[in-house]
Amino acid sequence: MAGDAREALLDRCVNLLKEGGFSQLSLREIASGAGTSHRMLLYHFGSREGLLTEVVRRVEAEQRAALADLAAELDDPVEVSRRFWRRLADPALAPAERLFFEIYAHALFDKSWTDSFRASVIAAWAGPVEELFTHFGWAGPEARRRARLSLAATRGLLLDLLITGDRDVLDAAAELFAELITAPPPTGA
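^ thats the sequence. predicted structure below, dont judge the formating
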C-alpha cells in the first residue's frame, strides 16, 4: 500500500513538473502544488533532492518507453530518430529537461544524493539504444558505439536547444545527425 501511495504522489509531482517546472521551488512549495505536505514528501523520498531524482527517473523511463514504441512501430531508423527528436524538443518537456540537466550538473560534482542518478544516467539508456541499433542491423561493438554517440549527441543538441532556443537550426542538426548515425559504415571499414 505504501508503494502505491508513493507512486501516486510521484505521479502528482511529475504532473506538477510538466505543468511548469519546480527546480527553484522549496519542498513545501512542491508539496503544496502536488496537494500534499512536505512531511509526506520527506517520508516517501527522503529529501527534496531524492524527490527530484525520482521525478527525473520517472520522466526518463517514460522517454525510453516512447523510444521503444517508435522503434516497434517504424522500420526506418532515420524516422525513429526524427520523431523522437520532435518529442524531446517539445517545449512542454522543457521543465523536465531543465531539471534533468540541473541534476546532471550536481552529479558532475559527486553530490552524494546523485549516486543513483550517476549509476543510471548512461546505463539506463545505453542498453536500450544499443538494442535499437541492433534491431536496425548493426551488431556488437558498432551498435554500442553508435548508441553512445547518439546518447551524447542528442543530449548536447537538447542542451543547446534549452539554452539558445534555436529550434530551426537544431532541428536541422538533429536531422543531419539522424542521417549520419544511421548511415552504413563505409565499404571496407
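The CA atoms of residues 32 and 38 lie 8 Å apart.
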